Amino acid sequence: MMERGFSRRDFLKAGCAGIAGAAVFGAAGCGGGPETEGAGVAGLTSRKDIRLVMVTHGSASDPFWSVVQNGLKQASKDLGVEVEYRAPESLDVVDIQKNMEAAIASEPSGIAMTVVDPDALSDLARQATGKGIPIVVLNTGQEVWEEVGAITYVGQTEYDAGVEAGKRMAEAGVESALCINQEQGNVALEDRCNGFSEGLGGNVKELAVQGTDPTAAQNAIKTELNNNSDVDGMLTLGPQGAIPALQALKSTGKGQALKFATFDLAPEVLQAVRDGDLLFAIDQQQFLQGYLPITFLTTYVQYGVSPVNEVATGPRFVTRQDANDVIDLTKQGIR
To answer: Domains in the chain, start-ordered, CATH in brackets?
Structure first.
């Protein structure tokens, strides 16, 4: 943990939160009067005064991030706190930095953020915590959340999830595979590919495609499949790679001969798992990645309490046996 001056974060830990729980129950010290019905006890502040910001790298066209936002909106509604969501149109570190700078300048009660590029974003996270703004890191940044002073991390360990995907593909007989990266510069996706290579124990080639252009992605995958006859497996790293890959497999006629799996869920992905066109899909439960950071920041600001370790939301593996059970929830924007 980085050393810094005494801040509101320190105050919550060492001051009010240390009054033998009295503030948590609104009985003395920093708490106010009784909260409105359904909002919990008063604690250190009223929920109606809590304003949070979530800053992510998720592009507007990625269905994964629409589910994260659904989790955020549900948490905001359930808890009665104000939440703002900021994200670039496509992966652009400069835009993310600007969004984070604007979030800090607005002096919110707390910030949830992805650290997709630690070199570019870690100092901004430290700047926020140094100003007394509590941080929760989600989705990416598992390796740096403690270093930047966040109260916790919510997500999955991407490298380990990739290893498990590789092991499952190896058990299915795959020896040579493609790893389709739809968002270059995202360190989490690079970790997935590297883990996949270790878990497979075979030959893995990473293919970069443009996830925001499905037609271009489909053509790039199709060309690679036609030019590489030795490939007997393929892993995509999200729906923006998986959906074009499904179309490429259909157009090349290689769907039956090639084992295919993906990270993350979408209705089309689950239908393909159900129909046997995908071996499995890795679910990191991104609804929780939207919901839990808002919950943790709210309880931290209001009560001074938080998890003491990172919170894993994945990986869970969805296979043909349970795909039907998940499809309806995916259509609702929950899974």
So the answer is: 8-156+286-313 (3.40.50.2300), 158-283 (3.40.50.2300)
